[in-house]
Amino acid sequence: MGADYFIRWMQTRRVPIGRARTRSFYKVLAYHSAKGWPDGNYQEIYFKTSFERKASAWEVVILTKETGRWQVGNYKFQ
């Protein structure tokens, strides 16, 4: 996912629900293979979050170690 796409995605989908009010860690999953991504080290970190205009949501931050150090590879919420 390119930076420009990510910024547009966040502006159209995430910004409208407002700032996070609470965020609680739920779990982390580690894996080595993901559809559409090269084999490597990945972690999905799940958070239960409450936003200003969405009382209950799940956020998932996907980390990748493609460059030899952990970095954000993707972000999802529902």
If you had to describe this structure to a student in words, what would you say it looks like?
- This protein has one domain (3-77).
- A hairpin with a 6-residue loop joins strand 3 (54-64) and strand 4.
- Strands 1-2-3-4 form a four-stranded antiparallel sheet, with no helix packed on it.
- The two termini are 19 Å apart.
- The longest helix has 12 residues, at 3-14.
- The protein is of the alpha+beta class and 78 residues long.
- The model has no long low-confidence stretch (mean pLDDT 90).
- The chain contains one helix and four strands, in the order H-E-E-E-E.
Q: Layout of helices and strands, plus pairs?
A:
Layout: H1 3-14, E1 20-31, E2 42-51, E3 54-64, E4 71-77
Antiparallel strand pairs: 1-2, 2-3, 3-4
Taking strands numbered 1, 2, ... along the chain, how are they ordered across the largest sheet? 1-2-3-4
Count of helical regions? 1
- Structural domains: how many: 1
Q: How big is the Rg?
A: 14 Å
The backbone outline, from C-alpha atoms, is globular
The overall average pLDDT, rounded, is 90
H/E element order: HEEEE
**Gap from first CA to last CA:** 19 Å
Largest β-sheet summary: 4 strands, antiparallel
Report the portion of residues in β strands: over 45%
Helix content: 10-25%
Low-confidence stretches: none
Task: Please provide the count of β strands.
Answer: 4
Structural class: alpha+beta
